[in-house]
Amino acid sequence: MKEGILGVGCALGLLVGSLGAQEASPPVAEAVHEGYPVLKASELLRPEVLKGPYHTVLDAVPTQGFANQYTVQTNWGIFNVRGNALLAKRIHEFEAIARLENASESEEFERSLRKAAASPLKAIGGAIQDPGAALKGLGAGAERLFNKVGEGFERGGKKSANTDNAMEGILGISKAKRDIAAYLKVDPYTDNQILQQRLDDVARASFLGGIVVKAGTFALSAGAGSAVASVAGNAALADDVTNMVHANDPLSLSDLNRDRLRALGISEEGIDVFLEHPNITPWQQTVLVGNLRRIGKVEGIEDFLKMVGTSQATADVEFFAQTSGMMADYHERVSPLKRVLSLSGLPAIHAGNNALVIPLAVDYGSWSEPADRLSAAIMQYKPQVEISERRLWIAGRLSERAQKELKARGFELTDGTNIPLYR
Fold first, then answer.
1. CA–CA separation, 287 and 257 (whole Å)
2. What predicted TM-score, i.e. pTM, was given to this entire model?
């Protein structure tokens, strides 16, 4: 299963290409670049990340484009995963899929599926064919729900990736699905179609077939899935996101995120573009908004949302979500942010200590030609602010050569800020 066309590495690669078009100083130190090493997963990853009950990460890990490119053998086939953030998410999802499948093997589940197919969907079918007459039979509660669905279409008929099916929302299946996803602590709007199908099956059996689903039904082990579900590593935010997505249908969740973005000073146009983006799921929107709320109302927040809007694939969104978390971490742990900047589409921050900080959601950085161009462009970037230092705030690791060259160029370095997957 491929993770989209661009992915985090290519997304950053496009930014590097744009930056490289600017006038750049010649490389310092040695003229020969390192290129892109192929790392060994067996030396890089923690044992429980490398191999679990339902997955094995193959040993060769190419690093082209600033992102580790993993090949993962699972019980459901091969997954090609770009980046640490997405690998963490997928490992947790593999465990969730297995739990759902185990729950689905019981006789009670089979009876519930047969019951689900018997009548409720047939009854609601009339509502699809003749909504006016059906509303009278379904009562005021259903009328309110139909009106809510209509409201969704009045908002332009647009929806983010894998949002709830309108009729399943009326039936309550989508609420059951969100309940189950909350038990498992997974994104109910994930683009992992295998997980989507398993969630749908159990949700229909639960709501339409009457099977009782409780948290203990899907008890997770203490393995890699539960340990690395969120690379962002902010437990409070993770709980807040889970609770918000669990408690609210997509329209209500969109309204909550809209209110939170308004409080940050984002324009209505900027909010609309963000919330209607086809590649950003309601879960990812809530993560991004949550991280921006950790930062608060500072200049340039809307510019960051515009950068997020360039995402063309799941891993692009994960890149910006991780970047927003890194920005918030610096704000909380080092120095409050004064301004968010855009360096040709690359997020940068100016902090209260007057540091110009570039948060880089990079898994592994070698001294490649793109890294050379990127660092030269960053060093030449001269925003109209006082700068005490230029610091690269890096999620992953840098090679010894990269550290040497970047320090020679004048950067302060902080790497390894977010590597829960690594040994």
1. 10
2. 0.80
Q: How far apart are CA 95 and CA 225, in angstroms?
A: 6
Given a cut of 70, the residues of the chain with pLDDT beneath it are 1-31, 112-171, 208-233
Task: Summarize pLDDT for 411-421 with one digit per residue, the tens.
Answer: 999 998 888 88
- Residues written for the chain: 423
Question: According to the model, what pLDDT value does residue 161 have?
Answer: 52
* Cβ contact 286:245 at 8 Å: yes
Q: Are strands 69-74 and 55-57 parallel, antiparallel or unpaired?
A: antiparallel
Q: How many CB atoms lie within 10 A of CB 237?
A: 19
CA–CA distances in Å: residue 360 to residues 13, 123, 252, 256: 12, 53, 33, 29
Q: 3-state DSSP helix/strand/coil percent for the chain, to nearest 5? A: 55, 15, 30
Strand partners, 397: 364
Instruction: Look at residues 301, 303, 309 and name the one whose alpha carbon lies nearest to residue 274.
Output: 309
Alpha-carbon distance values, 348 to 78, 196, 300, 326, 345 (Å):
36, 35, 10, 11, 9
Q: CA torsion, points 128, 132, 138, 140, in degrees to nearest 10?
A: 130
30-64 confidence digits (pLDDT tens):
558 998 899 999 999 999 999 999 999 999 999 98
Residue with tokens 């940050």: 264
Whole-angstrom Cα distance, residue 86 to residue 311?
Answer: 15
| CA distances from residue 268 to 260, 262, 387 in whole angstroms, order as listed | 12, 8, 32
First to last CA, the chain: 26
CB atoms within 10 A of CB 239: 11
Place of tokens 């109910």: 188
Amino acid at 383: P
* Residue matched to tokens 């059996």: 205
> How many CB atoms are closer than 10 A to CB 19?
22
Burial category of 270 from C-beta neighbours within 10 Å (exposed 0-12, middle 13-18, buried 19 and up): middle
CA 404 to chain centre: 32
